């Protein structure tokens, strides 16, 4: 077993807990072809329709993802966010996620475009970086949200970028849970 596969085996068992005891489970893995998948799961106490709205309505995105957020929900649309409430969505630190496709209340595929906070080397090679967000009915009015980021490059800058998204996405999904509960 390679060191990378060993690290991902360990990573699969890691969980991050927020103050409410809700678990964001890291089920990341490496595909048989050697590609990394950053995979996180969280179950929220609302039905799929409501969970979907937290991803597709500006006022709900602004409650958990970033203080500045806007979505143009359509294939070829986008979500743009900025964590700095004093900035603007036109700022170079804003994060733009293109909407590759979606299935209402089931799947949202986002094209990740890395901003100026990341090294130029990964910005120039982020053409395949995507996030697939799945919505599954868990029964009893709950929804499991599965986030899978794919299309990672190789090298030290990519490793740091991956680590950044592990921490950032766990925090973000913890925030979603806090807002919904």
Description:
- This protein has helices spanning 3-12, 48-56, 58-64, 120-123, 156-180; strands at 15-17, 23-26, 29-30, 36-44, 68-72, 78-82, 95-103, 107-113, 130-139, 142-150.
- By secondary structure, the protein is α+β, with helices and mostly antiparallel strands.
- It starts with a helix and ends with a helix.
- Helix 2 packs across helix 3 (58-64).
- The protein contains 5 helices and 10 strands.
- The model is unreliable at 1-20 (pLDDT under 50).
Secondary structure: elements and pairs:
Elements: H1 3-12, E1 15-17, E2 23-26, E3 29-30, E4 36-44, H2 48-56, H3 58-64, E5 68-72, E6 78-82, E7 95-103, E8 107-113, H4 120-123, E9 130-139, E10 142-150, H5 156-180
Antiparallel strand pairs: 1-2, 2-4, 3-4, 4-10, 5-6, 6-7, 7-8, 8-9, 9-10
- Quick one: biggest sheet? 10 strands, antiparallel
Number of strands: 10
Radius of gyration (Å): 16 Å
Mean pLDDT: 88
Residues in helix, %: 25-40%
Label the overall shape.
Answer: globular
List keywords for this structure.
single chain; 10-stranded antiparallel β-sheet; alpha+beta; disordered N terminus; 181 residues; 10 strands; globular
């Amino acid at each position: 077993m390679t060191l990378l596969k060993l690290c991902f085996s360990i990573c699969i068992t890691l969980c991050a807990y927020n103050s409410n005891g809700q678990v964001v489970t890291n089920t990341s893995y490496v595909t048989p072809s050697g590609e990394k998948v950053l995979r996180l799961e969280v179950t929220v106490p609302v039905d799929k329709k409501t969970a979907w709205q937290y991803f597709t309505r500006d006022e709900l995105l602004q409650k958990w993802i970033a203080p500045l957020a806007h979505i143009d929900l359509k294939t070829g649309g986008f979500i743009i966010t900025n964590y700095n409430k004093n900035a603007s969505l036109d700022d170079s630190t804003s994060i733009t996620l293109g909407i590759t496709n979606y299935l209402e209340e089931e799947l949202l595929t986002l094209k990740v475009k890395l901003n100026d906070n990341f090294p130029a080397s990964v910005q120039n090679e982020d053409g395949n970086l995507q996030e697939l967000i799945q919505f599954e009915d868990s029964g009893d009015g709950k929804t499991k949200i599965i986030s899978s980021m794919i299309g990672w490059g190789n090298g030290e800058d990519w490793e740091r970028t991956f680590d950044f998204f592990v921490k950032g996405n766990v925090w973000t999904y913890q925030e979603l849970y806090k807002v919904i509960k």
